[in-house]
Amino acid sequence: MTGSDGPHRESGSDFRPAGPASERAREEEERAVEQALALVGGSDRTGGSGGRPNRSQDHRGDQDPRGHQDSRGHHDSRGHQGPRDEDPHPGPSSDGAPYNDRDDAPRDGRTTAATASTTTNAASTTPAPSSEQPLLPDRSSPKDPAKPPSPPPPWDRARAIAARAGRGGPTPTIRLPLDRALGHVLAEALGALTDLPSFDTSAMDGWAVAGPGPWAFETGAGLLAGRAPAAALPDGTAVRIATGARVPPDTTAVIRSEHAHVDEARGLLHARRSVVTGQDIRARGQECRSGEQLVPAGTVVTPAVLGLAAAAGYDALPVVPRPRVDILVLGDELLNAGLPHDGLIRDALGPMLGPWLRALGAEVSGPRRLGDDAGALRDALASSDADLIVTTGGTAAGPVDHVHPVLDALGAELLVDGVAVRPGHPMVLARLSPDGPYVVGLPGNPLAAVSGLLTLAEPLLAGIAGRPAQDPYRALVHAEVHGHPHDTRLVPVVHRPGRAGGRDHVAPLRYNGPAMLRGVAGADGLAVVPPGGVRSGTEVEILDLPWAPATPWTEGCFT
Asked: Where does this protein have compositionally biased stretches of type Basic and acidic residues (predicted)?
């Protein structure tokens, strides 16, 4: 095949129009035939298997024009990268060179007006594809192979579908002791089981006094925290008191030690400053009253939440179980250790996905490496008891790309089959059965896989775990960011503080090609760039990375 360099004709389909015709007429008829082939598996399929749309790479953007691209979209360790994301001549924009895709050709079932107008006549003269590339009809309409597949949904719609799927089922509840609840999501609102504080306490080390001064006092240790309640304090007297100790009844105020003068000879205490009734006393119920809601359902249990729960009287918390995730790494070309060699490359996704998914609140099993074995993939999917199965690579239509055929064989429901986003447009979201696990199929290219995690896996897991949807936030971008002509683009960025009175902003990072991790390794977020790109000074939506604070304002080292 010729990819984006020109029209492709199936092997053995040397079509010639019948009867005499002019050269121009023959060329027009051949062009119509080739356009029809693009709809049924011919010229615009780049996955190595005619008839089914390529879900792993776009010949205009993700494929290296020099041919250095794995048919499944895995990272080529030699560093070859297509022109879409490469930045060989960094200039004022850290984002790199603009797109130079070929956008005049039909792509993934999206037709131009000219293509649509010639489909009916051209289809009647379409020759049969060769035996080397058998025609696979579109699964959505198996009896109508000429019907173009539906275009992939926009990025925001795909993300909404994933979030809605995660929230679709009932939310289970378990009770965990405090020392095991960290990182879970509260299944119920947390109400106070007692007043906080449950009695009047001293906020400072000093003297509890009653009435106006000076005050008579007795020597001794005084009142300490954790001791039984003291007798009422007579008017005109004082007693030493420690922070957290129970304040005696009838106490007017607490005077801090540094604000008091002790006349040992006369046995009197004098205040160096005016005394205000109730000063430095934490009154009962000052923080909350019994039954008052402390934190709502859907709150992530942080160390601070654990401390508050303990103070309010809890020994265990009602939480949502962590979503269980299995990771299946596909590809015979992947190495687990050592340097790339002899066409083999290192697996970058296996080591990355587990920690990433745990940072999203999931309970993750160790990655299973299945190679290019369709039977092993089917068995692993069918036997999993996880809530979500994440696969890497194999989402194209090549000879060893088994994700779609196996999902078909298992009767899975495809919820998202490709997304209009770069990198990562061939991502997949499916459900194996109405009560079975979800499957997120990630592209094999590392940054494309990150895109799939943020687009599909993150909102899906948030829904399963009961986390409320987060409001998106926007930030100024400090440089021009080139966009894809039709699709949303996710670009690694780093937050930076404004200088000389300027506003805080984000700066795009280099090394943002689909096969690269160097840019996202130095990022604290991804900018959501609309089709066509944005100019410097434009506000864009930001997706925080799970280990980065919302506004880190740190300098990156990969700009």
From this structure: 1-13, 23-33, 55-89, 100-110
| CA distances (Å), origin 368, targets 77, 361, 525 | 22, 20, 28
Number of domains in the chain: 3
Enclosing domain of residue 90: 20-172+321-464
313: CATH: 3.90.105.10
Assess contact for 129 and 51: CB atoms under 8 A. yes
* 3-class secondary structure, 403: helix
Whether the pTM exceeds 0.85: the reply is: no
Indicate if 183 and 159 belong to the same structural domain: no
Nearest to 513 by CA among 154, 3, 55, 61: 61
Residue 516, number of CB atoms within 10 A of its CB: 22
To the nearest 10°, report the CA torsion of 57, 60, 66, 71: 10
Long-range contacts of 247-250 (CB under 8 A, 24+ apart): 247/199, 247/200, 247/201, 247/202, 247/208, 247/281, 248/208, 248/210, 248/223, 250/210
Give per-residue pLDDT as tens, 64-122: 433 344 434 444 333 333 333 333 333 333 444 454 443 333 333 333 333 333 333 33
DSSP string, 120-181: HHHHTTPPPPPTTS-----TT-TT-TTSPPPPPPBHHHHHHHHHHHHTSS----EEEEGGG-
Give the end of a domain, one of 436, 464, 492: 464
**H-type helices in 185-330, by residue range?**
303-311
User: What is the C-alpha to C-alpha distance for residues 168 and 180, in angstroms, rounded to an integer?
Assistant: 27
pLDDT tens digit string along 448-482?
A: 999 999 999 999 999 999 988 878 889 999 899 99
Same domain, yes or no: 325 and 315: no
Which DSSP state fits 336?
S
Task: State the Cα–Cα distance between residues 83 and 269, nearest whole angstrom.
Answer: 82
Which of 401, 435, 464 terminates a domain? The answer is 464
From 456, 455, 373, 349, select the one nearest 75 (Cα to Cα).
349
Geometric angle at alpha carbon 386, from 385 and 389, rounded to 5° = 120
Angle at 65 between CA 34 and CA 104, to 5 degrees: 40
Nearby residues of 341 by Cβ (< 8 Å), 6 or more positions away: none
The CATH number given to whatever domain includes residue 32 is: 3.40.980.10
Letter string b/e over residues 82-103, b meaning 16 or more CB atoms within 10 A of that residue's CB? bbbbbbeeeeebbbbbebebee
Taking the C-alpha atoms of residue 186 and residue 298, their distance in angstroms, rounded to an integer, is 5
- Whether residue 242 is found in the same domain as residue 304: no
